[in-house]
Amino acid sequence: MSKNKQAGLSLIELLTVVVIIGILGSIVIPSYQDSVRKARRADSQAVVLELAQWMERFYTENGRYDQDRDGNAVGPQIPAILQTSPKDGSVQHYALVVDNITQRTFTINANPVGNQTGDKCGSLTFDQAGTKGMSVTGLTVAQCW
Asked: Which residues contact 124 (CB under 8 A, 6 or more apart)?
């Protein structure tokens, strides 16, 4: 007579594993999403600075930010590649807009779109004086830039 012994997981062991995976997932997934948002924000900051350099070159050539020597507004002349982040044409995470353009001043706003709207820093700003900012309160510029 042979005894048939079956081995396997009990229901308690299986539930323990499921609970552990659930706990790890609830910790890891938000951390991962925050890291992705932070990387996207860094990419948008690079594009903002590149757009600011473009505006400075425009000023050097024309003596003002708002229009060229022929009286044409600067807005339509801004390259399309500098109006979105990332520049590679993939899914857009930030829309870049140059606001408050006068003869001597401008402000660049990087507004989050899509999944990036959950970013803790909100919209990022940069002006002709190199002043960095963001739309949320309670955080420092160093935390977002």
From this structure: 41, 44, 45, 48, 94, 109, 110, 132, 133, 134, 135, 144, 145
Residue 113: the pLDDT is 93
Summarize pLDDT for 21-50 with one digit per residue, the tens. Answer: 999 888 888 888 889 999 999 999 999 999
Query: Which amino acid is present at 64?
Result: R
Single out the residue of 106, 102, 114 nearest to residue 82, CA to CA: 106
Rg (C-alpha) for the chain, rounded Å, is 25
70 three-state secondary structure: coil
| CA 59/CA 105 separation, integer angstroms | 10
Contact call for residues 55 and 127 (beta carbons, < 8 A): no
Q: What residues does 73 pair with on adjacent strands?
A: 67
Tens digit of each residue's pLDDT (9 = 90 or more) over 55-95: 999 999 999 999 999 999 998 899 988 888 888 777 899 99
Nearest C-alpha neighbor of 45 from the set 94, 4, 89? 94
